[in-house]
Amino acid sequence: MSLRTKLAEFGFESNDDYDHALRCLFGQELTHLRVLHVDGTAGRRKTAFAQALGRALDFPHILYNDFSAEEDIAAPQPIVLDDGSLGVPESAPSGFERVMTEACAYSEAAQTLLILDQLQAAHFSDQARLYHFAMKREWNSPSGAATANAKNLVMVLISEQALYHSLAKCSYRVWTDAQRAYLDYRPADFGLGPEAQAFFSSLSGVCLALEAAPTPSEFANVVDDLLHRARSEEQIRQSLFGRIETLERARLYAPELAPPLRNLLGELERLLGADEVSLGD
Nearest Cα to 146, choosing from 187, 179, 114? Predict the structure, then answer.
């Protein structure tokens, strides 16, 4: 089974092939930790890719930290000293500190994927610490030091802004959002003949106007809706909104969408008319 197929099974669809990227990542000399920088347009597909990748590669441990998530701060707890007395209260480690320590511990014996999401919300000092960790495999925190096994640990970085330069330089970057993959779809891929090419081209024109990037299954569902259920511009709008996850509803009613949407309805009517004549014959 191809990596692309396995990624789709775990929730990430794409026309891109990531086999070469992973061969490069895992084939490099281990002078530092393997770091994968998942780049792409804003949205959830970068996170979905990272999660699906860990499962597709059968990693026993997949750890995740979102720097943009609000975190409850636990009250400092007193430390019990060896003589039974109470020392100065210490704050509980943050979720970031915990996940880093856990990643080191798990990597000692098993493959571990550490996903660090929304790094643009992290303090610069944290990105600098991550660079030191990637190069030295050592994580130092108030609770102690931990060491990662470079053979087992892969660190995945996701950010909506540019990474700290040094951290980016030690990473292997992949792009996860194939924005115009749907332009390569052909009628034959969906069981249709060449007579449907104009219909496909007009549907791609609507996607361009919407700045939408439907995945293969989303595109297939839209095509199925249009061929069997949609018979008006409003119904086409609803099918597009219902099937494409990242589509902004306001764009469906923008004035610039009217011409390509009208053209799509015309091509749909011509295609269905041609089918009816063919069936009648």
Answer: 114
